[in-house]
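> example.struct
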Protein backbone atom coordinates (compact mmCIF):
# COMPACT_ATOMS: atom_id res chain seq x y z
CA UNK A 1 0.00 0.00 0.00
CA UNK A 2 1.01 3.60 -0.62
CA UNK A 3 -0.26 6.29 1.69
CA UNK A 4 0.21 10.03 1.30
CA UNK A 5 -0.88 11.67 4.56
CA UNK A 6 -1.41 15.44 4.83
CA UNK A 7 1.41 16.22 2.40
CA UNK A 8 2.58 19.78 1.83
CA UNK A 9 5.13 20.79 -0.80
CA UNK A 10 6.34 24.09 -2.21
CA UNK A 11 8.42 25.28 -5.12
CA UNK A 12 10.46 27.98 -3.42
CA UNK A 13 8.03 30.29 -1.63
CA UNK A 14 5.07 29.12 -3.70
CA UNK A 15 2.98 26.39 -2.07
CA UNK A 16 1.99 23.80 -4.67
CA UNK A 17 0.60 20.82 -2.75
CA UNK A 18 -1.37 21.30 0.46
CA UNK A 19 -3.10 18.81 2.79
CA UNK A 20 -2.79 16.05 0.17
CA UNK A 21 -4.12 12.60 1.11
CA UNK A 22 -4.20 9.46 -1.03
CA UNK A 23 -4.26 5.70 -0.41
CA UNK A 24 -3.35 3.19 -3.14
CA UNK A 25 -3.59 -0.59 -2.83
CA UNK A 26 -1.60 -3.36 -4.55
CA UNK A 27 -2.97 -5.58 -7.31
CA UNK A 28 -4.08 -2.62 -9.44
CA UNK A 29 -2.95 -0.49 -12.35
CA UNK A 30 -3.46 3.20 -11.61
CA UNK A 31 -3.57 5.96 -14.19
CA UNK A 32 -2.17 9.29 -13.01
CA UNK A 33 -3.63 11.98 -15.27
CA UNK A 34 -3.76 15.75 -15.55
CA UNK A 35 -2.50 18.57 -17.72
CA UNK A 36 1.14 19.61 -17.78
CA UNK A 37 1.99 21.25 -14.47
CA UNK A 38 -0.82 19.55 -12.56
CA UNK A 39 1.62 17.74 -10.25
CA UNK A 40 1.80 14.21 -11.65
CA UNK A 41 5.58 13.85 -11.89
CA UNK A 42 6.08 15.93 -8.75
CA UNK A 43 3.92 13.53 -6.74
CA UNK A 44 5.96 10.53 -7.87
CA UNK A 45 9.23 12.34 -7.15
CA UNK A 46 7.95 13.04 -3.64
CA UNK A 47 7.27 9.32 -3.23
CA UNK A 48 10.88 8.52 -4.10
CA UNK A 49 12.37 11.36 -2.09
CA UNK A 50 13.72 13.07 -5.21
CA UNK A 51 11.70 16.10 -4.12
CA UNK A 52 11.36 16.79 -0.38
CA UNK A 53 8.04 17.30 1.35
CA UNK A 54 7.64 20.21 3.78
CA UNK A 55 5.33 18.29 6.10
CA UNK A 56 3.23 15.14 6.22
CA UNK A 57 4.07 11.45 5.93
CA UNK A 58 4.51 9.04 3.04
CA UNK A 59 4.19 5.29 3.64
CA UNK A 60 4.98 2.36 1.38
CA UNK A 61 4.18 -1.18 2.49
CA UNK A 62 3.75 0.15 6.02
CA UNK A 63 7.17 1.81 6.14
CA UNK A 64 7.70 5.52 6.71
CA UNK A 65 9.69 7.15 3.91
CA UNK A 66 11.59 9.40 6.31
CA UNK A 67 13.16 6.38 8.00
CA UNK A 68 13.25 3.94 5.07
CA UNK A 69 14.13 5.90 1.93
CA UNK A 70 16.55 3.22 0.74
CA UNK A 71 13.79 0.61 1.04
CA UNK A 72 11.49 2.80 -1.05
CA UNK A 73 14.07 3.20 -3.81
CA UNK A 74 14.93 -0.50 -3.87
CA UNK A 75 11.31 -1.63 -4.10
CA UNK A 76 9.98 1.03 -6.48
CA UNK A 77 10.96 0.98 -10.15
CA UNK A 78 10.64 4.41 -11.75
CA UNK A 79 10.91 5.10 -15.48
CA UNK A 80 11.35 8.79 -16.30
CA UNK A 81 9.54 10.51 -19.16
CA UNK A 82 12.88 11.02 -20.90
CA UNK A 83 14.84 7.75 -20.53
CA UNK A 84 18.15 9.56 -21.01
CA UNK A 85 17.57 11.24 -17.64
CA UNK A 86 18.13 7.91 -15.87
CA UNK A 87 20.48 5.90 -18.07
CA UNK A 88 23.96 6.04 -16.52
CA UNK A 89 26.03 3.46 -18.41
CA UNK A 90 27.41 3.33 -21.95
CA UNK A 91 26.42 -0.28 -22.61
CA UNK A 92 23.00 -1.94 -22.25
CA UNK A 93 24.32 -4.80 -20.11
CA UNK A 94 26.18 -2.42 -17.79
CA UNK A 95 23.01 -0.37 -17.39
CA UNK A 96 21.00 -3.44 -16.41
CA UNK A 97 23.71 -4.57 -14.00
CA UNK A 98 24.08 -1.17 -12.31
CA UNK A 99 21.35 -1.41 -9.64
CA UNK A 100 22.06 -5.05 -8.84
CA UNK A 101 25.76 -4.36 -8.37
CA UNK A 102 24.95 -1.50 -6.01
CA UNK A 103 22.87 -3.85 -3.86
CA UNK A 104 25.53 -6.57 -3.76
CA UNK A 105 23.93 -9.22 -5.99
CA UNK A 106 26.22 -12.02 -7.10
CA UNK A 107 27.44 -11.96 -10.68
CA UNK A 108 25.62 -15.24 -11.39
CA UNK A 109 22.28 -13.68 -10.39
CA UNK A 110 23.07 -10.48 -12.26
CA UNK A 111 23.95 -12.34 -15.45
CA UNK A 112 20.80 -14.49 -15.32
CA UNK A 113 18.62 -11.42 -14.80
CA UNK A 114 20.30 -9.50 -17.64
CA UNK A 115 19.72 -12.35 -20.09
CA UNK A 116 16.06 -12.61 -19.00
CA UNK A 117 15.37 -8.89 -19.39
CA UNK A 118 17.24 -8.47 -22.67
CA UNK A 119 15.17 -11.27 -24.16
CA UNK A 120 11.90 -9.94 -22.71
CA UNK A 121 12.47 -6.43 -24.10
CA UNK A 122 13.99 -7.50 -27.43
CA UNK A 123 17.38 -5.99 -26.58
CA UNK A 124 19.50 -8.95 -27.68
CA UNK A 125 22.45 -7.80 -29.73
CA UNK A 126 22.15 -4.20 -28.54
CA UNK A 127 25.28 -2.78 -26.96
CA UNK A 128 25.94 0.97 -27.06
CA UNK A 129 23.07 2.98 -25.56
CA UNK A 130 24.09 6.04 -27.58
CA UNK A 131 23.31 4.12 -30.77
CA UNK A 132 19.76 3.18 -29.73
CA UNK A 133 16.54 4.83 -30.90
CA UNK A 134 14.28 6.64 -28.43
CA UNK A 135 11.98 3.64 -28.20
CA UNK A 136 14.90 1.28 -27.54
CA UNK A 137 16.25 3.57 -24.83
CA UNK A 138 12.82 3.57 -23.24
CA UNK A 139 12.81 -0.24 -23.22
CA UNK A 140 16.26 -0.25 -21.61
CA UNK A 141 15.00 2.16 -18.94
CA UNK A 142 11.99 -0.06 -18.19
CA UNK A 143 14.18 -3.18 -18.08
CA UNK A 144 16.59 -1.39 -15.73
CA UNK A 145 13.72 -0.38 -13.44
CA UNK A 146 12.70 -4.05 -13.19
CA UNK A 147 16.10 -5.54 -12.33
CA UNK A 148 15.39 -5.61 -8.58
CA UNK A 149 11.87 -7.02 -9.11
CA UNK A 150 10.12 -4.03 -7.47
CA UNK A 151 6.72 -4.15 -5.80
CA UNK A 152 5.71 -0.97 -7.62
CA UNK A 153 6.49 0.11 -11.18
CA UNK A 154 5.97 3.76 -12.14
CA UNK A 155 5.95 4.62 -15.85
CA UNK A 156 6.06 8.32 -16.72
CA UNK A 157 4.71 8.33 -20.30
CA UNK A 158 6.22 4.86 -20.47
CA UNK A 159 4.86 3.93 -23.92
CA UNK A 160 5.20 7.32 -25.62
CA UNK A 161 8.25 6.35 -27.71
CA UNK A 162 7.17 2.80 -28.52
CA UNK A 163 5.67 1.42 -31.69
CA UNK A 164 2.43 -0.55 -31.46
CA UNK A 165 4.18 -3.91 -31.04
CA UNK A 166 6.39 -2.81 -28.15
CA UNK A 167 3.61 -0.73 -26.61
CA UNK A 168 1.49 -3.89 -26.42
CA UNK A 169 4.41 -5.72 -24.79
CA UNK A 170 4.66 -3.03 -22.12
CA UNK A 171 0.90 -3.22 -21.52
CA UNK A 172 1.08 -7.00 -21.10
CA UNK A 173 4.00 -6.55 -18.71
CA UNK A 174 1.90 -4.18 -16.57
CA UNK A 175 -0.94 -6.69 -16.50
CA UNK A 176 1.42 -9.46 -15.32
CA UNK A 177 2.78 -7.23 -12.55
CA UNK A 178 -0.80 -6.60 -11.42
CA UNK A 179 -1.57 -10.34 -11.51
CA UNK A 180 1.39 -10.88 -9.17
CA UNK A 181 -0.36 -8.72 -6.58
CA UNK A 182 1.94 -5.77 -7.19
CA UNK A 183 1.12 -2.25 -8.30
CA UNK A 184 1.65 -0.15 -11.42
CA UNK A 185 1.24 3.62 -11.74
CA UNK A 186 1.13 5.01 -15.27
CA UNK A 187 1.50 8.75 -15.81
CA UNK A 188 -0.12 9.45 -19.16
CA UNK A 189 -1.82 11.99 -21.40
CA UNK A 190 -3.19 9.25 -23.66
CA UNK A 191 -6.78 8.51 -22.69
CA UNK A 192 -6.78 5.43 -24.90
CA UNK A 193 -4.43 3.81 -22.37
CA UNK A 194 -7.27 3.83 -19.86
CA UNK A 195 -8.43 0.64 -21.55
CA UNK A 196 -6.12 -1.45 -19.34
CA UNK A 197 -6.10 0.82 -16.25
CA UNK A 198 -8.23 0.06 -13.18
CA UNK A 199 -8.47 3.35 -11.30
CA UNK A 200 -7.79 6.99 -12.11
CA UNK A 201 -6.08 9.73 -10.12
CA UNK A 202 -6.78 13.00 -11.91
CA UNK A 203 -4.79 15.99 -10.65
CA UNK A 204 -5.38 19.70 -11.10
CA UNK A 205 -3.05 22.33 -9.64
CA UNK A 206 -1.49 19.88 -7.20
CA UNK A 207 -4.82 18.59 -5.86
CA UNK A 208 -7.01 15.56 -6.58
CA UNK A 209 -9.84 16.48 -8.94
CA UNK A 210 -10.99 12.87 -9.23
CA UNK A 211 -10.02 9.50 -7.74
CA UNK A 212 -11.95 6.35 -8.55
CA UNK A 213 -12.95 3.75 -11.11
CA UNK A 214 -12.05 4.47 -14.74
CA UNK A 215 -15.63 3.93 -15.96
CA UNK A 216 -16.89 6.69 -13.68
CA UNK A 217 -14.06 8.95 -14.86
CA UNK A 218 -14.86 8.33 -18.52
CA UNK A 219 -18.51 9.05 -17.86
CA UNK A 220 -17.61 12.40 -16.31
CA UNK A 221 -15.50 13.28 -19.36
CA UNK A 222 -18.35 12.48 -21.74
CA UNK A 223 -20.79 14.46 -19.59
CA UNK A 224 -18.36 17.39 -19.61
CA UNK A 225 -18.14 17.52 -15.82
CA UNK A 226 -14.51 18.65 -15.67
CA UNK A 227 -13.81 22.37 -15.90
CA UNK A 228 -10.30 21.66 -17.18
CA UNK A 229 -10.72 18.85 -19.72
CA UNK A 230 -7.76 16.96 -21.14
CA UNK A 231 -7.06 16.71 -24.84
CA UNK A 232 -9.51 14.11 -26.09
CA UNK A 233 -8.92 11.43 -28.75
CA UNK A 234 -11.30 11.69 -31.70
CA UNK A 235 -13.36 8.71 -30.51
CA UNK A 236 -13.95 10.43 -27.15
CA UNK A 237 -15.00 13.61 -28.97
CA UNK A 238 -17.57 11.68 -31.01
CA UNK A 239 -18.98 10.01 -27.90
CA UNK A 240 -19.05 13.32 -26.05
CA UNK A 241 -20.98 14.99 -28.88
CA UNK A 242 -23.49 12.15 -28.95
CA UNK A 243 -24.08 12.54 -25.22
CA UNK A 244 -24.43 16.34 -25.52
CA UNK A 245 -26.90 16.21 -28.41
CA UNK A 246 -28.73 12.91 -27.79
CA UNK A 247 -28.04 12.14 -24.11
CA UNK A 248 -26.60 8.77 -25.12
CA UNK A 249 -23.85 7.43 -22.84
CA UNK A 250 -21.21 5.41 -24.72
CA UNK A 251 -18.75 5.10 -21.83
CA UNK A 252 -19.21 1.31 -21.70
CA UNK A 253 -18.03 0.88 -25.31
CA UNK A 254 -15.63 3.82 -25.60
CA UNK A 255 -12.63 1.62 -26.38
CA UNK A 256 -14.34 0.02 -29.36
CA UNK A 257 -13.99 2.52 -32.19
CA UNK A 258 -16.24 0.42 -34.41
CA UNK A 259 -19.12 0.37 -31.91
CA UNK A 260 -18.83 4.09 -31.12
CA UNK A 261 -18.83 4.96 -34.83
CA UNK A 262 -21.86 2.72 -35.43
CA UNK A 263 -23.79 4.50 -32.67
CA UNK A 264 -22.62 7.91 -33.85
CA UNK A 265 -23.69 7.45 -37.46
CA UNK A 266 -27.15 6.25 -36.46
CA UNK A 267 -27.95 9.87 -35.71
CA UNK A 268 -25.79 11.77 -38.24
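> example.seq
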Amino acid sequence: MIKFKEIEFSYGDEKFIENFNLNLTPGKIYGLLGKNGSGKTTLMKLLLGIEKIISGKIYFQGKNQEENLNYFRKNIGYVFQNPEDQLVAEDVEDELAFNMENYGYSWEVIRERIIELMEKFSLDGQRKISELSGGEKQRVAIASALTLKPSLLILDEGTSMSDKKNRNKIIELCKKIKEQGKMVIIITHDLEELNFIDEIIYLKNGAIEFFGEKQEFIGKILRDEFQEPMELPSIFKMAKELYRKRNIDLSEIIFSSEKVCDEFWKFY
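> remarks
The chain has one domain: 2-211.
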